[in-house]
Design a protein that fits this description.
By secondary structure, this protein is α+β, with helices and mostly antiparallel strands. The protein is built from nine helices and seven strands; from the N terminus they run ααβββαβαβααββααα. The protein has one domain: Class II aldolase/adducin N-terminal domain (L-fuculose-1-phosphate Aldolase). Strand 1 and strand 2 form a beta hairpin. Helix 2 crosses helix 9 and helix 3 packs across helix 6.
Length: about 260
């Protein structure tokens, strides 16, 4: 079961760029959605004891919110910290931040269009991160992949490392590999997914995983594979919001 602060959600999602949304949502609702995003991604197998999700601070684009270093399934409202784009917490109050928080800070610095980020180690993505086989869109719910999914090779940025993006320069190198794409794979590590809202980045992360599993199955079958065409993806883009699924995912994560 999830904590009471997760069950008492107010806003459906943090949607600062969506038309028709006047004013900022209450900060408590944004934090509740961020907690919900952590729990959903854990329940759906996208995050395990590791990985994280963040959201840009509405009203101050130089800041973002991210949990302290804790397993996503255990995140509560009290665990959420606010960070500057230097990757440091505004007031840690004794809480230890994630080592790879620079993934978030440098992407927010580089991409004005990004308001939410997920970093995951989802097993289905590793074969595509570690091989020459590109991850490509297999069906409409993952049509955003038609934009392309680059692979970040950390050795090109820093030689031999521990594979973690623990510094601002490495975060900047990752952001450069991501460029204007919605997602980037990380060789030997996992992936980063970006979007304009918590709801959208959660949906993209879930369907990125499902797409990878479907593509691996199709490759195993042999024969010609037909991928989603970029024009099909463009026409579907307006439906890329996952709002109906968001309510379902919340109920499943809450065990109801």
């Amino acid at each position: 079961m999830l904590r009471r602060d997760f069950l008492a959600l107010g806003a459906l999602a943090f949607l600062p760029q969506q038309p028709g949304r006047d004013g900022a949502p209450p900060i408590a609702d944004v934090i509740a959605d961020l907690v919900a995003g952590n729990h959903i991604l854990a329940a759906e197998g996208i995050l395990d004891g590791y990985g994280h999700i963040s959201v840009r601070r509405h009203g101050n684009r130089e800041r973002f919110m991210l949990a302290r270093s804790v397993a996503p399934e255990l995140v509560a409202a009290a665990d959420i910290l606010e960070f500057g784009l230097n990757g440091e917490p505004i007031d840690a109050n004794g809480k230890i931040p994630y080592k790879e928080r620079f993934i978030h800070s440098e992407i927010y610095r580089a991409r004005a269009d990004v308001n939410a980020i997920v970093h995951c180690h989802t097993p289905s993505l590793i074969p595509f991160a570690d091989s020459s086989v590109p991850l490509r869109p297999m069906y409409h719910q993952s049509a955003f992949l038609a934009a392309g999914v680059p692979v970040f090779e950390i050795r090109q940025a820093a030689g031999m490392t521990n594979m973690l993006v623990e510094t601002a320069p490495l975060g900047a190198a990752l952001a450069k590999s991501l460029a204007d794409k919605p997602a980037v794979l990380m060789r030997g590590n996992g992936a980063v997914v970006t979007a304009y809202s918590i709801l959208n980045v959660v949906g993209r992360s879930i369907y990125l995983d499902l797409n990878a599993r479907i593509q691996a199955q199709a490759i195993a079958l042999g024969g010609k594979i037909t991928y989603i065409d970029p024009e099909e993806a463009r026409k579907y883009a307006a439906s890329d919001n996952y709002s109906r699924a968001w309510e379902l995912w919340k109920r499943k994560a809450a065990g109801k």
